[in-house]
DNA sequence: CTCTTTATAGTCGAGATGACTCTTAAAGGG
DNA sequence: CCCTTTAAGAGTCATCTCGACTATAAAGAG
């Protein structure tokens, strides 16, 4: 806060950018909007927008999320600050500082384009880029962060509907991490972690096709995983 | 980025705030500056300042760090973005969005007050508050983040001088976590993690007092701890 | 009915971890 | 000079965890 009254300070435009992730058909998807104006007209970008005068970045992010996804209730969705991007040349027109957020959605309703002309669409994460501005970097950072958080938090349930099977939960891990997990071991680990999931008493769901019906679970009260659910590392031990 | 040309956007003042942490005499300390002007004149605050027109937040943070600590070379110090604070009322004078950083220092030279009149001083973390603005919250968030990062990264060496003993490294963990660790187990764990530390060939240091001289180590090349060094949880297993 | 598919239960060994004990090498006091 | 104190570092041992794997149960397809 030094220099408040001593030096002139530069005014900046402040925006929020959202990396909205969901899982559709076993693949990680991200919500993108098509830009209608220069620069990057016709390119895809992460949804976002300017802070209003009386909004915090969190408030603005939640407002933008509601606008872009068309969901009526975004109050329960997982929204978390990622980091702030402030390189001087990240927007060719002017100095823009952007606070990026990650949002995780359980189901994936088609976005209805928000309130303006730009169309919005779910795109597979692997074929999302190249995006406008530095959004490729933001998206990659969001993926890294979410992948790391799956290890030590109960975040995975944010990708799942209110009631889900352990198979669905496992698919969240496999999809985000991009690798397969052993089903009995995953099950043992999840059930041994108090507060991660709690069984829905009598319910079982036909998973939509063949096979034995799976028991249903709800997200538990815990937020951190103790001990963590570590993803297998490539280098086990170079003894 | 929607609405760039459609809506007016509010200009914001953008600052950086720094939670500069070090360990002095077995206690966590934080660098504070005394405010000379209203609001909060006479209160202590985290060092920080406005972004210059052509600076990224990271560049500004490193510049402020050099100014506030008086260190000639801050290029090697650990500096990391924490999060951005943007509540509309966090500064009573105007709308200020602040990007907060954590910085970790090995040794603790007395700060020489920077280039302006405000005095700067190391304060014990436990008796640091109350601070100006929302800096208590920022400082607490920084402590949480650093504590969590000690578990899964090699960050602890950032608190240590270039050559250090395992006892000193352990004290970093104990100080930040606020609990005692078993020395042989800590030693075993650190040495079993490839790339965490590497021995300085023939060197041993008289630790300054009684006891067997300890071997010296340098920070290794690894950045992540696989597997992590978990802090003991209060609830071991309520079986 | 039989095969396939998916959920769930159980087994087994290697590795990691927590709680200890013991030895070694220095300083300091008498 | 000897003995105590202090801290480093080596080693032990039981337990827990985890990965790999096998087996059983419950559904649909043919």
Which features does this protein show?
homodimer; 239 residues; alpha+beta; seven-stranded mixed β-sheet; 4 helices; disordered N terminus; DNA-binding
Report on the structure:
2 copies of one chain form a homodimer. The relative contact order of chain A is 0.15. The model of chain A is unreliable at 1-6 (pLDDT under 50). In chain A, the strands form 2 sheets. In chain A, strands 1, 2, 3, 4, 5, 6 and 7 form a 7-stranded mixed β-sheet that branches. In chain A, strands 8-10-9 form a 3-stranded antiparallel β-sheet. With 239 residues, the first copy, chain A, is an alpha+beta fold. Chain A is built from 4 helices and 10 strands; from the N terminus they run ββββαβββαβααββ. In chain A, β1 (11-24) and β2 form a beta hairpin. The interface between A and B is large, with 55 and 56 residues. Chain B binds a DNA duplex (30 and 30 nucleotides) through residues 165-167, 182-185, 187-189, 192, 206-207, 209-215, 227, 230, 232, 236-237.
Question: Quaternary status of these chains?
Answer: homodimer
Largest interface: A-B, 55 and 56 residues
Radius of gyration of chain A: 20 Å
Helix coverage percent of chain A: 10-25%
How many β-strand runs of chain A? 10
What does the largest sheet of chain A look like? 7 strands, mixed
Number of helices of chain A: 4
Q: On the 0-100 scale, what is the average pLDDT of chain A?
A: 87
Structural class of chain A: alpha+beta
* Percentage of residues in strands of chain A: 25-35%
**Morphology call of chain A:** elongated
The sequence of SSEs of chain A as H and E is EEEEHEEEHEHHEE
Uncertain stretches of chain A: 1-6
- End-to-end Cα distance of chain A: 51 Å
């Amino acid at each position: 806060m030094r220099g408040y009254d001593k030096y002139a300070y530069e005014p900046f435009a402040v925006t929020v950018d959202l990396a909205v992730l969901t899982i559709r058909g076993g693949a990680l998807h991200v919500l993108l909007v098509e830009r209608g104006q220069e620069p990057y007209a016709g390119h895809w970008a992460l949804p976002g927008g300017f802070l209003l005068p009386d909004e915090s970045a969190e408030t603005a992010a939640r407002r933008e999320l509601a606008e872009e996804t068309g969901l009526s209730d975004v109050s329960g969705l997982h929204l978390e600050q990622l980091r702030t991007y402030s390189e001087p040349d990240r927007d060719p027109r002017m100095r823009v500082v952007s606070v990026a957020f990650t949002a995780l959605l359980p189901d994936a309703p088609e976005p209805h384009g928000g309130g303006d002309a730009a169309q919005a669409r779910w795109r597979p994460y692997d074929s999302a880029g190249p995006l406008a501005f530095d959004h490729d970097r933001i998206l990659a950072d969001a993926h890294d962060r979410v992948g790391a958080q799956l290890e030590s938090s109960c975040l995975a349930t944010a990708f799942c509907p209110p009631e889900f099977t352990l198979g669905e939960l496992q698919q969240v891990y496999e999809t985000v991490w991009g690798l397969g997990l052993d089903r009995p071991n995953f099950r043992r680990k999840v059930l041994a972690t108090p507060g991660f999931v709690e069984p829905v008493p009598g319910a079982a769901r036909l998973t939509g096709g063949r096979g034995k019906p799976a028991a249903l679970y709800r997200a538990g009260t815990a937020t951190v995983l103790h001990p963590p659910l570590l993803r297998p590392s490539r280098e086990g031990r170079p003894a």
